């Protein structure tokens, strides 16, 4: 197949096919096959980031705001977590989390209250408007993500999800 061909094994060529082909031509001594997967993952991540930012912006949210609101929403009723639990779920520093909670509280999306099990502790609770906003943002996010994945049938998406899990599990501590 020549480099200008628009298909590879019956599939439309993409930019990654072109760059891999160029590297194989220029550096035949190297195995560039990792680029075929990871360059596509990187490109897909850019599209996903754009889709997420769009879904959140449509509801007046920043990505970090959705991260905190969704962690509280996933906690289930009464939709509250300690700041430490929020740190664990959002992977930010204590100072960053304090600032984020302050900003969300100023918007009326969360409230702080005492932890009944720890006199010194605080719990952050999602307000009704925070829950409604998290739910609306999730709905928009899932719509955008479905559009990104629309080229694959459900059976192939399941296989892809399984394969990606095999790759990511090595980086995740339980």
UniProtKB/TrEMBL annotation:
HTH marR-type domain ranges (all copies): 34-169
One annotated GO molecular function: DNA binding
Organism the protein comes from: Actinospica acidithermotolerans
Swiss-Prot/TrEMBL keywords: DNA-binding, Transcription, Transcription regulation
InterPro entries: HTH_MarR-typ, Tscrpt_reg_MarR-type_CS, WH-like_DNA-bd_sf, WH_DNA-bd_sf
SMART domains the UniProt entry points to: HTH_MARR
Keyword DNA-binding carried by entry: yes
Name recorded for this polypeptide: MarR family transcriptional regulator
Matches recorded under Pfam families: MarR_2
